[in-house]
Structure formats: structure tokens, C-alpha cells
Amino acid sequence: MVTVLIISIIIVLLVLIVSLKVTNKAYQYKHTIDPPAEDLNHSKHERKTDA
């Protein structure tokens, strides 16, 4: 019974450590946004004014 408890605690600790590492790495990732394409926005504006 003690062996099962020790193995369970080890597994929980391993999962906790991996989760913290992955979360920390995800927060460090810098997201970038592509600038809007001027041609697409301009053509949409022209279509609205033509109607």
C-alpha cells in the first residue's frame, strides 16, 4: 500500500513539474500579428462605395 502511495506521489510531482515548464514556455512565446494587406482593404472599401 505504501509503495502505491509513493509511486502516485512521484507521478503527481512529475506531472506538476512538466505542466509548470510548459506553461512557463507558453507565456514566454511572443505572438505576432501580420499587418493588414492594403490592397484587400482598399478593394473592399471600393466595393462598398460603388453600390
Describe the structure.
This protein has about 50 residues and is an all-alpha fold. Helix content is about 80%, strand content about 0%. The chain has helices spanning about 1-30, 40-50. The radius of gyration is 26 Å and the shape is rod-shaped. The chain starts with a helix and ends with a helix. This is YtzI protein. InterPro entries: YtzI-like. Keywords: Membrane, Transmembrane, Transmembrane helix.
Category from helices, strands and their pairing: mainly alpha
Biggest sheet details: none
Distance between the termini: 78 Å
What's the order of the H and E elements?
HH
Short description:
By secondary structure, the protein is mainly α. It contains 2 helices and no strands. Keywords: Membrane, Transmembrane, Transmembrane helix.
SSE diagram, text form:
Blueprint: H1 2-28, H2 38-50
Characteristic key phrases:
transmembrane helix, 51 residues, YtzI-like, YtzI protein, transmembrane, single chain, membrane, rod-shaped, 78% helix, mainly alpha
